[in-house]
Amino acid sequence: MRENRSVPPKTRLAQAVALHQQGQLAQAKAMYTSLLGDDSAHADAWHLLGMVAYQEENYLLASDLIQKAIAINPDMAGYYSNLGLVLRELGQFEMALASYEKSLSIRPGVAETYNNQGILYAGAQRYKEAIDCYDRAIAAKPDYAAAHYNRGNALFQIRQLPAAIASYDKAIRLKPDHHQAFDNRGIAFKETAQYAKALADHDQAIRLKANYVEAHYNRALVLCDLKDLESAEVSFRQAISLNAGYPFLLGAHLHNAMQICSWEGLSASLQSLRDQVRGTLPAASPFVVTGVLDEPALHREVAQIYIQKRFPQNDALGTIKPRTAGQKMRIGYFSADFRNHAIAYLVAEMLEKHDKNTFEIYAFKLNPEPPDETSVRIFAAVTQVIDVSDKSDRNAAQLSRALNIDIAIDLGGHTVDSRTGIFAHRCAPVQVNFLGFPGTLGASYYDYVIADATVIPEDQRQHYVEKVAYLPHCYQPNDAQRKISERIFSRSDLGLPASGFVFCCFNNAYKILPSTFDGWMRILQAVEGSVLWLLDHNPVATRNLQREAQSRGVDANRLIFAPRMPLAEHLARHRLADLFIDTLPYNAHTTASDALWAGLPVVTCMGISFAARVAGSLLRTIGLPELITDTQAEFEARAIELAKDPSSLKAIRSKLLSQRETSPLFDAPLFTRHIEAAYQTMQTRHQSGLPPDHFSVAG
After folding, report:
1. What is residue 360's three-state secondary structure?
2. Is there a single domain that holds both residue 305 and residue 338?
3. Is 258 inside any structural domain?
4. What is the dihedral of CA 634, 576, 259, 344, to 10 degrees?
5. Confidence of residue 369 (pLDDT cuts 50, 70, 90)
6. Rounded to two decimals, what is the model's pTM?
7. How many domains does the chain have?
8. Is the pLDDT of residue 116 over 60?
9. Sheet of 407-410, strand order
10. Structural domain boundaries, residue 508
11. Residue 193 falls within a domain, yes or no?
12. Are residues 338 and 401 in the same domain?
């Protein structure tokens, strides 16, 4: 469109603004520039040219242009408000805040400016101040849907979920086509276990915007929680078709596929994952990658990308004041799993055996679940239970600081319901990665990882951001008080054949890679009449594994699936298995301890990464190194050899039962003394002004 210079400047400006509002930025820019050619003091043209640069994400230029407008006309509130938007994008928090304040001083009560100020505070994770700004915006303009929506987002971040839902409700009533409000309300419903409402909201978001990748992704996550993994697969695939590079989508889809043992396209997915990680893209959570690739260098990259995207270090609370030496050391264990859960089963006796004359033990509870027999036992063993399930990460960190916690232990790491954000705020002078996640957490604000010489050999330490605190035996605690039911099962009770060798693996389905399954099938083919006893994870996984067996020439009936049952009975049924055969690269961890405690030998193949070496650590500690192999061929040969040599297997079982009573593996008092020595070394180094460093606890 050729510009008519005979048109009055005011009309030309209106025409330019119309083009701008229609998204025709190049034409609008040309007209603003032409106006400035005629009048270099045209403040509105400088301002609007700056807004074009803002929309083109040229923020430095936008800042310069808007400031030229302000220099010409310093009394325009809108200029300062929009400059605040630009400065926010440039990460200049204080200058942006000052710009908003200046705008409000010129023109008080502007709802949009309050809203933008709230967005600025929310970006700095100052959510209470953000909510105050949104409240002011709503007071000035009660029907301001965007402010209600943003208020909901801020309330969600500080774990005020019912209030967040109420704010989303208001935004939706005011703007019924607000697809983002529906989607985010769905996330809040998921967090409060209102799954039907969550699904309905994600579905409505998709109806409003069919190509809304976030809603398809979030819908899939709700279906995962509902264990409807087949339907989740459909939603994941739909999301991938819209945007395969959406953050963490590839990994979430991969994990869902592994949970149902759907291996079609697995090699391509793994290559896509590697490619995205090499491009520093957030492809997957570290937990997912740990289960499918035995590549410690990649694990570190994935963890660091994840931390930078989700939980970057936040120094808003400042440094922690040193505490007077000589007082009891205060240890804070943070976990969402103080309940009937594998982590709780491992740590229960350790928590009971802590020296309460030297240590005060605090259990920071990260979920609101009601008590069960395991949580009752654990909470009776500690000095104090702190429920932070309804607190923001920042507030939980502040509470930990107020309690003078000396060493904070993250028992979850990158697992479900963990709260890495609390540690990002530095909740204690020393912060430790322990037990829940087998690998580096990728964050410099974790000072140490608890390990042993098997799971992290010295030549692998470069793959860990944390310094390694080596325990003398196995890094994994165990509970020698765990009861094994006295119930005597028969083979028929459990669906096992009357005769034949019983291999078993009670690991989670997502740990079963095609290469592992290939090996298992070769073992079954080599041992006539043998069966493989697996956990019945979900009907889809069962069907897929049966089909995979059939395709490898093994009768599907040779796979026996065990339903879930209470722990004591689950341990008791191990007696009917002959040999536990492991997975790679994610070994049996608690499941290996279960088997050994129940007297069932475990054959493992050790890999390179932490997760791939845990069963080896357990076996070395209990004195059965002969059950550790280093290659797939050796693993299969060892399993077949033991199945065909009953006397050798009987000798190993007898050795296991004998050494179970005397080895360090199930000696919780000994383990506790060693981990306490590690804590004391960490504390001494910190109080001496020394940085974290690798060290070993003497045996």
Report:
1. strand
2. no
3. yes
4. -100
5. confident
6. 0.91
7. 3
8. yes
9. 384-387, 359-365, 329-335, 407-410, 430-433, 448-451, 467-470, 695-696
10. 492-666
11. no
12. yes
